[in-house]
Structure formats: structure tokens, C-alpha cells
Amino acid sequence: MLRLADGLMKWLSRRPLRFLHALGAVLGWAVWGLSPAYRRRLRDNAALAGISARDRWRAVAEAGRMTLELTRLWLRPREAPVPDPVCWEGGELIEAALGRAGGLLILTPHLGSFEVAAHAYAERFGPRQPMTVLYRPARQAWLRALEEVARERPGLSSAPATLAGVRQLIRALRQGGTVALLPDQVPPQGQGVWAPFFGREAYTMTLAVSLARKTGATVLLAWCERLPGGRGHVVHMSPLPEALPPPEGLDDEAWTLQAVTVVNRAMEALILRSPGQYLWGYHRYKHPRATP
After folding, report:
1. H or E segment and range at residue 223
2. Is residue 52 within 8 Å of residue 278, measured between CB atoms?
3. Percentage helix, strand, coil, to 5, in the chain?
4. Domain definitions of the chain by residue range
5. What's the alpha-carbon Rg for the chain, to the nearest Å?
6. Continuous segment of H or E residues that includes residue 236
7. Is the backbone of residue 99 left (phi > 0), alpha (psi -120 to 50) or beta?
8. For residue 47, which of 37, 41, 108, 157 sits 20 to 30 Å off, Cα-Cα?
9. β-strands 200-205, 192-197 pairing
10. Directed axis angle between helix 53-74 and helix 114-124, to 10°?
11. Rounded Cα distance, 219 and 212, in Å
12. Are 215 and 170 in contact (CB under 8 A)?
């Protein structure tokens, strides 16, 4: 069975992006049809944010497109460039941040082709300032092995969502590197706080704001837009619209909650730029799992 899956993924990885996106849309609707829990979660999360029915239906197909485009990205040879065109909007913000003390912290939600953004950064900026991405290892051993290989590229390395991985991120920033996180990812118990996200309390990681405070990193936002017709992607960069609160006059707990709320508002603003490309089916409001 694993051999069959491996062969299918390799076959898919050699197909054009337009084909993968068309087939991915079918996959997205198949998952929607087969999983009542997924349907309910996607519908409820999108309704909470006031997303139109049109964008909800689009999000169903876009989730499938994201899944299949990963085969083309992950299974290319290690030294090969990103296989499809990537344009940059706001790339000068990265240029200005390179070499600054404290490194660069890039935050992006589960929006668009966020995996493509990391690989595109590594290709363009990695030779000058490598990127480390935080990831949660997959439960399946074969997928976990694939993720580890796919995310280890020139200018790009990965850190698991463990204490050792957090130390790796801090070290990377203090050495002047770049770190990328998805701050809308639900962390384990004890590694987050409950903060508003589209009007509902969501358990939200504190790691992003903690890294910024400890290292003085420059914080930028990113989202990678998936263009229609298999034309490629656009990585949009922007500054954090609200500054993180100053620590003076606040205890650690109060500062963390305020800072996390600022980041959540920033993620909401990004998502609302293209709500049809957000993973509304992600279990954003679940209760956190116990720390391993």
C-alpha cells in the first residue's frame, strides 16, 4: 500500500500545476462530501468570521488544491528551484530586514500556499539569511519522513514543535537568521493562552510573541496567494499593523495576552484579504492536547 501511495505521489509531482489544481478541487469536494465533521467545522468557522457562501465553497476546493500542489513542491530534487513562478509583493521589506540584530520573524496563517512561501524565501533570500520553519511532525511515519526531507533545502531547515525545536528557533534568531511560524496553529496545553479570534476565544500560541520579545526580531507578515489557472503564486509581505505592546507597566501574563491578541487581529486581517484560500476546516477552536 505504501509503495502504491509513493508511486502515485511521484506521478502527481510530475504533473503541471494547472492539472494538480484541477484535480485538487475534486479532492477537496470529495473530502467535504465524505466527512460530516469537516463540513460542520468549515461551515461554522467561516460563518463565525462572516464569510460569504461563495468564499466558503471556494475554500473547499482550495484546500484540495493546496494538498496536491505539495507533491510538486516537496518531491522535486533537493537543489531544484521552486517549480512554478513566484512573484513578490513587498519583498523590499525582507531586503530591509536582512542582517538586522535579532533576526527576522515571519508570521503567516493557514492561508494560501504557505509551504510555497517558505521554499520561495529560501530560494531568493536563503543564501544571505537562512530560514528555519516550525512544524508539527505528522503522526504517520511515512509522511513524517517525507516532511523532514522536503523541508530540508539549501537556505531552509525545520524545527519540530518541541522544547528542543523552540531552542533551535531562539538560537536561529539570535544568530541573525529568519524564523517562520503559523501563529493560528493550536499549541499543546500550557503553551498558549485563550484569546479572541474572529470573535470567539481560541487557544493561541504564545511562542511568536515570546520569540519577538526575547530576541528583538523584526516581525513581518506573509501570505502566499495561489493564482488561478496554475499560473503560480504571489507572496505578499507586510509589516505588523499594530506594534506589540511595550512590556513596561504590565506583568508577563497581561503582556502576553495583549501581544497575542495583536497577532490574532493581524492574522484576521490577512485572512480577510482572501477568505476563499483559508483553511476554514482547520480545528482552530479545539481544546489543546496535553503536552507530550
Report:
1. strand 218-226
2. no
3. 50, 20, 35
4. 2-277
5. 18
6. strand 233-239
7. left
8. 108
9. antiparallel
10. 50
11. 7
12. yes
Per-residue CA distances from 164 to 103, 158, 213 (Å): 19, 12, 19
Residue 44 dihedral angles phi and psi, to the nearest 5°: -70, -45
Angle separating helix axes 2-13 and 141-150, nearest 10 degrees: 30
Angle between helices 36-48 and 17-34 (to 10 degrees): 100
β-pairing, 86-89 vs 233-239, is parallel
Q: CA–CA separation, 280 vs 95, rounded Å? A: 32
The answer to whether residues 121 and 106 touch, using CB atoms and an 8 Å cutoff, is: yes
| 19-31 tens-digit pLDDT | 999 999 999 999 9
C-alpha cell read off for 59: 475554500
* 189's grid cell: 496545553
Describe the crossing of helices 36-48 and 53-74 by its angle, rounded to 10 degrees: 120
pLDDT of residue 171: 96
Specify the length of the chain in residues: 292
pLDDT at 184: 96
CA separation for the pair 107, 73 (Å, rounded): 21
Residue ranges for the chain with pLDDT beneath 70:
1-2, 137-149, 291-292
Per DSSP, the chain holds a count of helices (H) and strands (E) of 10, 9
Tens-digit pLDDT profile for residues 45-92: 999 999 999 999 999 999 999 999 999 999 999 899 999 999 999 999
φ and ψ of 158, to 5 deg: -125, 155
Q: Count Cβ atoms below 10 Å from residue 163 Cβ, excluding itself.
A: 10
Q: How far apart are CA 222 and CA 239, in angstroms?
A: 9
Q: Among 207, 215, 212, 166, which Cα is nearest to 187's?
A: 207
Which residues lie below 8 Å from residue 38, measured CB to CB, with a gap of 6+? Answer: 31, 32, 281
Cell of 284: 482552530
The rounded distance, in Å, linking the Cα atoms of 28 and 292 is: 31
Tell me if 113 sits within 8 A of 140, measured CB to CB.
no
